[in-house]
Automatic annotation (TrEMBL):
GO molecular function, one term: hydrolase activity, acting on carbon-nitrogen (but not peptide) bonds, in linear amidines
SUPFAM superfamilies (alphabetical): Bacterial exopeptidase dimerisation domain, Zn-dependent exopeptidases
Keyword annotations: Hydrolase, Manganese, Metal-binding, Purine metabolism
Origin species: Chenopodium quinoa (Quinoa)
Keyword Metal-binding: yes
Listed cofactors: Mn(2+)
Official protein name in the record: Uncharacterized protein
Gene Ontology biological-process annotations: purine nucleobase metabolic process
Pfam families named among the record's database cross-references: Peptidase_M20
Subunit structure comment from the entry: Homodimer.
Region (Disordered): 1-28
Domain of life, per lineage: Eukaryota
Length: 472
């Protein structure tokens, strides 16, 4: 192969997996000045050497944090990809790892949430809570949830090594929530909802696909889990100052803007439906088209209807997944089709209006096709707004991080809505909350392709450090 041919091959290889409009790592790095070059320049000036060492904290906020994310990304229940569901063996191992990062000063509650606390100058004052979730989806990425845990621990470690923990006016508690994704029990926010006090005791009776109840799982991991102990997990509102969560954006907005951090304005409300369409089985070659009661064709029309309703200019997000059929023989018409619907919007009343119209039109379509339709409402969560004061403080902290890493930049910290649900939704029932988003390459999440730059991990850590130093 000639030199030109080799270069072309290398260029093609570098572009593998990169989607149109997606930025490369090199493009994403353009936000930052050459930090290493800046350090060398400061060192030559002599008097500012100490500022570099104690202002950027690369060792803890970047290198160690990235290493810990990689370490946690290897704690899985299966070989070959990341899967760590609620109170699985890998989840228990991950909790032990996180406890060690907390300098063994933490504890694990009966729901599997990992807690670590520093008292600051007043142990009895209301505590700031920070964190995210340690569980994952199946075939997950290593940043979803884990980044929020690691960045909080790293920022507190900087305060510890610089002997500034006692300067905190309020206690700070980091919580690694045991279940946010809801993979095992199809019930999201088990960990944070228990802390927020919005998880009813009846939740103990829900079961996974193997028929094992939540109470049986908890009893296996803790001794004598009762309804009273379950309810006692709730924190008292007067004991909490607020909740702050760092999370990957799981979308493309920050990357498109070329900015590593953004402040969340609010989290969209969500409704999940299970739709079952049933018709008649028959021979695919002998039943005339006009006489068929075909649930597959009806389901396809219902899915297109959902798409068309949410394309109206009302800022709704929807998807349908988990589409399946009752097993049938080759050459036979399908008897039953099931699929799920996920509808999200910041406007709760608007979401309800769309659901009402969607249901009415679905039933109408199925009536015309002579098939039955059952719509089950499986999950509801109202939209929540982030606290304006916390959001302004996080915005200021993000700008501080930008200026430490990229010089005296003058940028507007983006303000985003979150279409995805987060533990902050549950915690909003307990206290005021704020969120900081970190860009991820291509907006990809819930995938092994999920990726965050080490320098963006660093920026998130610096922002949380600035927030703690200036506002807690």
């Amino acid at each position: 192969m000639g030199e030109d041919g080799q270069k072309n091959a290398e260029n093609k290889e570098a572009m593998v997996g990169q989607k149109r409009g997606e930025r490369s790592d090199e493009d994403m790095h353009k936000f930052y000045s050459d930090v290493q070059g800046m350090e060398k320049k400061l060192k030559r000036r002599g008097e500012e050497i100490e500022v570099v060492g104690h202002d950027l904290y690369r060792e803890y906020l970047r290198d160690e944090a990235a290493s810990r994310l990689n370490e946690l990304g290897k704690v899985s229940d299966v070989n070959g990809y990341l899967e760590r569901t609620f109170l699985s063996p890998a989840s228990v191992r991950a909790a032990n790892v996180i406890s060690q990062w907390m300098e063994d000063a933490g504890w694990v509650d009966i729901m599997g949430n990992v807690h670590g606390r520093v008292d600051g100058m007043n142990a009895s004052a209301p505590a700031l809570l920070m964190g995210s979730h340690l569980d994952t989806v199946v075939d997950a990425g290593k940043f979803d949830g884990a980044l929020g845990i690691v960045s909080a621990i790293s920022a507190l470690k900087v305060l510890m090594v610089t002997e500034k923990l006692e300067n905190l006016r309020n206690p700070v508690e980091v919580i690694a929530f045991s279940d946010e994704e809801g993979v095992r029990f199809q019930s999201t926010f088990l960990g944070s909802a228990a802390i927020a006090g919005i998880l009813p005791a009846s939740t103990l009776n829900i079961s996974d696909k193997s028929g094992i109840t939540l109470q049986e799982v908890l009893n296996k991991n803790a001794v004598g889990v009762t309804e009273d102990k379950f309810i006692q997990l709730k924190y008292q509102p007067e004991s909490v100052l607020g909740y702050v969560e760092v999370h990957i954006e799981q979308g493309p907005v920050l990357e498109a803007a070329g900015i590593p951090l953004g402040v969340v304005k609010g989290i969209a409300g969500q409704t999940r439906l299970k739709v079952t369409v049933s018709g008649s089985q028959g021979h695919a070659g002998t039943v005339p088209m006009s006489m068929r009661r075909d649930p597959m064709a009806a389901a396809a029309e219902l899915i297109v209807l959902l798409e068309s309703l949410c394309k109206q200019p009302q800022n709704f997000l929807s998807y349908d997944d988990d589409c399946s059929t009752v097993e049938s023989l080759f050459g036979s018409l399908v008897c039953t089709v099931t699929f799920t619907v996920d509808l999200r919007a910041m406007d709760d009343a608007g979401r309800e209006a769309v659901l009402y119209e969607l249901s009415a039109r679905m039933y109408n379509i199925c009536d015309k096709r002579s098939v039955s339709c059952v719509i089950e409402r499986k999950h509801d969560a109202n939209a929540v707004k982030c606290n304006s004061e916390l959001s302004l403080q996080l915005q200021s902290a993000a700008l501080t991080a930008f200026r430490k890493m990229a010089g005296n930049v003058d940028v507007d910290v983006p303000k985003l809505m979150s279409g995805a649900g987060h533990d902050a939704m549950a915690m909003a029932h307990l206290t005021k909350m704020g969120m900081l988003f970190v860009r991820c390459r291509g907006g990809i999440s819930h995938s092994p392709a999920e990726h965050v730059l080490d320098d963006d991990v660093w920026a998130a850590g610096l922002a949380i450090l600035a927030f703690l130093e200036n506002h807690v």
